[in-house]
Amino acid sequence: MVVSSKPILENSSHIKTCKPYTSDDNIPVIDMLDPQAKFHIIKACQEFGFFKVVNHDVPKETVTKLEGEAVRFFNLPQCEKDKAGPANPFGYGIKRIGTNGDVGWIEYLLFTTNTELISEKSVNIPGNSHLFWSALNEYVSAVRNIACLVLEMIAEGLKMEPKNVLMIDMLDPQAKFHIIKACQEFGFFKVVNHDVPKETMTKLEGDAFKFFNLPQCEKDKAGPANPFGYGNKRIGSNGDVGWIEYLLFATNSELISEKSVNIPGNSHLSWSALNEYVSAVRNIACLVLEMIAEGLKMEPKNVLSKLLRDQKSDSCFRINHYRPCTQLETLSGGRNLIGFGEHTDPQVISVIRSNNTTGLQICLRDGTWVSVPPDHYSFFIIVGDSLQVMTNGRFRSVRHRVLTNSLKSRLSMIYFGGPPLSEKIAPLSCIMEEGEESLYKEFTWGEYKKSAYLTRLGDNRLGLFEKKIKVRQYGRSLLI
User: Fold this and answer.
1) Residues 451, 443: Cα–Cα separation, whole Å
2) pLDDT tens digits for range 388-406
């Protein structure tokens, strides 16, 4: 809503209940760059329901440009402004506020918005109104981002968890059943009490930030990614791009080799910290897979985890860095900038951890995207395509993506647990019920990996390997 209050009072009524503002008034001021901002916001919401934010990263030009265009509109002759009304409820209105008799010394423009753009069709602004639609959309997108960031900080501060993200306590005797439920319903869950020391997580995170803060010419010595090494913006070789730079390493069941990526000597990336971290998250992945095997009564218990512990395991480890994206870069047509486009992971299982910055989203079965609040001392588990096949569709690999953050860098570290290249991927006979048909053609991990990496990120990679199942319905044979 764009509002203009007239400077002349004429016959309006007066109220005298407003305390004059002084510099000593305790209106809360929240610095959005303050690490404790989320707690200050919660206190302000509890005590006042109102606060001021600074260091919000919205350029002054974005604010003043729309303000100038709005003032020009309201200075037009009344007959011109009336062309944008009457408000019903959107459009130009004057004095009347709503339809229930409320009035005020005000004229205004009210627009409907969606998550993309304010449509020029939503309000019939006259062509000579000087209200530039680009300025309007730029401003609305910017303040929407502020609103979302504040709400995410509130969620963090209150330790809210979306109902779509299940939290699994690894010390809970019933954890294996909760894990199976999460894999069936979402293909995604959070684990706590995982026994990985905080020092193991924060040491590698600190080393990674030091690397990504190096001059570009130094980082480039570790690339180009082919596929391992340092990459910047390009994701794979099929045209996918994102607001991202990354390091990708090959792993085996023992160590990440220093020969796998040519990290420059002054990169500050500690190989010992890297291997300590990868070993810890591989253990989490294997423990989760063994709990799944127990819960589904698979025999032997290590039927899944042995794929990751095999010396020929084709696992990999990736460190993604998403630099802060300024508003001018973010406001590309009013849309959020993609850090990493939507996709599923082709491997068996993925273990992801990030610093305390938002951005990760998962897609629910109904197509709704939900944000995952960050938790830099927990891990998130992602079901991969291969595990979906091995459970014959009982588990579903989850589509996920990362959106950029305008204020803070996001650093995420992902372990992708993959089987040996020669391993056959097919529904496991130990869980197949009598008469149950396989939904997928058998393939080796090497075949699927090759096929997956020839596709775009958002493609349905498993589609090429799904069987056409014949069922009987109403006396007819149908292919599904």
Assistant:
1) 11
2) 999 999 999 999 999 987 6
Q: Within 10 Å of residue 171's Cβ, how many Cβ atoms?
A: 10
Other beta carbons within 10 Å of 163: 7
Residue 394 appears among annotated catalytic residues: no
> Which amino acid is located at 10 in the chain?
E
For residue range 449-466, what is the model confidence (pLDDT) as tens digits?
Answer: 999 989 998 899 999 999
Return phi, psi of residue 341, to 5°: -65, 165
Antiparallel, parallel or unpaired: β 166-169 and 349-354: unpaired
Q: Is the pLDDT of residue 24 over 60?
A: no
Give phi and psi for 385, each to the nearest 5.
Answer: -55, -40
Residues in the chain: 480
Give the count of beta carbons closer than 10 Å to the beta carbon of residue 148: 14
Residue pair 109/91 in contact by the 8 Å Cβ criterion: yes
Q: Considering 282, 353, 396, 410, which one is annotated as catalytic?
A: 410
> What's the token pair of residue 424?
């056959």
Share of residues in the chain with pLDDT > 70 (%): 81
Please give the model's pTM, rounded to 2 decimal places: 0.71
Given the DSSP bridges, would you call strands 188-192 and 166-169 parallel, antiparallel or unpaired? parallel
Integer-rounded Cα radius of gyration of the chain: 27
Report d(CA 394, CA 384) in Å as an integer.
12
Q: Structural domain boundaries of the chain?
A: 56-158, 167-454
Q: What is the 3-class SS of the chain, one letter each residue?
A: CEEEECCCCCCCCCCCCCCCCCCCCCCCEEECCCCCHHHHHHHHHHHCCCCEEECCCCCHHHHHHHHHHHHHHHCCCHHHHHHHCCCCCCEEEEEEECCCCEEEEEEEEECCCCCCCCCCCCCCCCCCCCCCHHHHHHHHHHHHHHHHHHHHHHHHHCCCCCCCCEEEECCCCCHHHHHHHHHHHCCEEEEECCCCCHHHHHHHHHHHHHHHCCCHHHHHHHCCCCCCEEEEEEECCCCEEEEEEEEEEEECCCCCCCCCCCCCCCCCCCHHHHHHHHHHHHHHHHHHHHHHHHHCCCCCCCCCHHHHHCCCECEEEEEEEECCCCHHHHCECCECCEEEEEECCCCCEEEEEECCCCCEEEECCCCCEEECCCCCCCEEEEECHHHHHHCCCCCCCCCEEEECCCCCCEEEEEEEECCECCCEECCCCCCCCCCCCCCECCEEHHHHHHHHCCCCCCCCHHHHHECCCEEEECCEEEEC
- In the structure encoding, which two tokens stand for residue 281, read together? 């998250």
CATH number assigned to the domain with residue range 167-454, chosen from the 4 options 3.40.30.10, 3.40.50.1820, 2.60.120.330, 3.80.10.10: 2.60.120.330
220 CA to centre of own chain: 27
Contact 385, 463 (CB under 8 A): no
Spatial contact of 317 and 249, defined as CB atoms under 8 Å apart: yes
